[in-house]
Amino acid sequence: MDLQPFLHVLLAAVQAPSQAWSARDGQVRGAGAEGFYHGDVRVLSQAVLTVSGAEPEAIQAAPSGRQEVHVVAAVRGIDGPGADPTARLDRIRTAHPEGIDEVLRLSCSTAEPVVGRLAVRIRSDEGALEQIKRGLPTSAPPVAIEPDGVRWTAGSVDVVVRAPGARVIAGEDSSHALLEWDLEARTGEPAEAAWYLRAVQHAPVVTAPASPDVEWSVPEVAAVDKRLPQMLLRGLGDLAALRMSATFAPDEVFLAAGAPWFFTLFGRDSLWAARMLLPLGTDLARGTLRTLAARQGRVRDTATAEQPGKILHELRRQTFAIGGGVTLPPLYYGTIDATPLWVCLLHDAWRWGMDAADVEALLPAAEAALAWMADSGDADGDGFLEYVDESGHGLANQGWKDSGDSVQWRDGRLAQGTIALSEVQGYAHEAAIGGAALLEAFGRPGADRWREWAARLAERFRRQFWVHEPDGDYPGIALDGDKRLVDSVTSNMGHLLGTGLLSREEEDVVAARLVSPDLSSGRGLRTMSSSSAGYWPLRYHGGSVWPHDTAIAVAGLARTGHDEAAATLADGLLAASVDLGWRLPELWSGDSVEDVPRTVPYPAACRPQAWSAAAVVTVLTSALGLAPDVPGGVLRVSPAATTPRPLVVRGLRLAGRRLDVRLDRDGSAHVGTDAPVRVELSGTPERR
């Protein structure tokens, strides 16, 4: 049986396309996902440190900055007398685009010098990412010993380890090597050793960007709630570690979905992350849009799920075998939502002030994406976007909840056949309205057609997607292959808010449902109601909490004027962040705050995860109530009445210019910007 490795107890140092995963004591023993990776290959599976024959005893280990971990360990085997640990070893591991560095610093506070033989036992590996994700065994290529290091080839990656000043000794088999240093430390005079791994991948599909400079601003936040700036700082650091470029669009930058398994371009994830970061600038959105447009579907191909106008799901260097008969081709289009989300991002980036020439250049791709919604996206012509895997080896579910059991009835039965997801209809409606605005603004035909298409979609949705129950109405998760309404209560309904698909009365119903005890855990929004038969707090899409999912609901609630509900869900994310060291992983357990004292990790959750890290920006800007319309020359600011004050945010971006917002205790709001807009302050959020 395939067993996916747990990640929650591991330390990670990440800087795309390199990553290093170790146990909490800093040791890399090769268990589970431990190892050094480059691209989609684990190139090193062991790096075990000893000091004079004994492993150091870790007393603290934590991330340090966006790409570094720092382990502090006692080395009692060479320590002086007494109860205090007076000799220590600091192990500092840093990820770079080219590989991994490790500095070993021996220090002491003893009367006599401390002498230790530091040894790092390394083992080569050539494990493909999908093998490790499934818990399958990997092979180790032979290493070549050199005077100052070791060299080997791991699949498609050439690897070299350099260890200045070390003795390099061949290991007990051809895959091992030993790096040794004799160090002497005195009080006030630490001794250091270091080793460096560098990797070069043959024919990669994604690489590090040409520039190390991030595409967004890093705002300064002064808040009554001290959790907010802490979470923002951690989140932006994580995002900087996930910056990538595709080899077919080397001048553009996007965010990889997450580490370790999704360390590449993902249509849906990269789009959502870029959309969440729009208040910090539009450059990332432009790079993401251009990269995805460069591989927009052109032909019909059942094996890859490509269709004309469709936006891709994920990009890999080679076929990715997930298990259970699911095998995804290197360029895979099996997603129902990336295409409308691409149009939504283009529209929102335009509203946030992306250069008009850049927007106009992307309009042909937008027109093709819109056409896909009414053509291939609606395969049976019923007016809804739906999906089905025609290849027999692709993803059975192709919305953001893409696990095999994510779409189920309230009684736990799985939905079968062609699936039309509720939130995707919201994305499509928003894309049609936003697309119409773009076409009209740039003098292109089709605006009226897409507004009419959106109106018809809203009417159909109102007739077919609402569940009417004694305990209240709500939108069901999907229509199945027989066009029956799948009645489970899920977080998907939160994505409908602010898309224009719902009436005001319907928005009120959804807002109330989202903060009901069965969906709101106190640490975010559950993916499935705890009253459903299929609910389990540690089910990937059936009861867990995903921070990006909660943040999307927060944004929709704020956008539709439901400030208290938005504040409730946002506070849940902030509460969880305290337990999780400010870093929001891919997901966590849906356990209620009333049942467990601390946030329970989902043990296989990825981190950093792009849309999770970006969620804090959505929480912040939703509290500020920002609704920009740079083409229309206006910025509407409607701060939530529930936002703790004072709150000062300096260094947001609007049309490439600085934007500062200050909310005072007396309820007043102050906005400063040199962007070409007039500022309208209001107590009521803009409704669209």
Question: How would you portray this structure in words?
Answer:
There is one protein chain. The protein has 688 residues and is α+β, with helices and mostly antiparallel strands. The protein folds into three domains: 11-204, Beta-galactosidase, Chain A, domain 5 (Distorted Sandwich); 207-629, Glycosyltransferase, CATH 1.50.10; 634-681, no CATH class. It has an eight-stranded antiparallel beta sheet with strand order 5-6-7-8-15-12-11-10, with no helix packed on it. It has a seven-stranded antiparallel beta sheet with strand order 1-2-3-4-9-14-13. A hairpin with a 4-residue loop joins strand 5 (57-63) and strand 6 (68-74). Helix 3 (267-276) runs parallel beside helix 5, helix 8 runs antiparallel to helix 9 (447-464) and helix 11 (547-559) runs antiparallel to helix 12. The longest helix is centred in the middle third of the chain and has 20 residues, at 422-441. The radius of gyration is 26 Å and the shape is globular.
Brief sketch in words of this structure:
This protein is 24% helix and 27% strand. Helix 5 runs antiparallel to helix 7, helix 7 (363-374) packs across helix 8 (422-441) and helix 11 (547-559) packs antiparallel against helix 12 (563-579). The protein has an eight-stranded antiparallel β-sheet with strand order 5-6-7-8-15-12-11-10, with no helix packed on it. A seven-stranded antiparallel β-sheet has the order 1-2-3-4-9-14-13. Strands 17-31-32-33 form a four-stranded antiparallel β-sheet, with helices on one face.
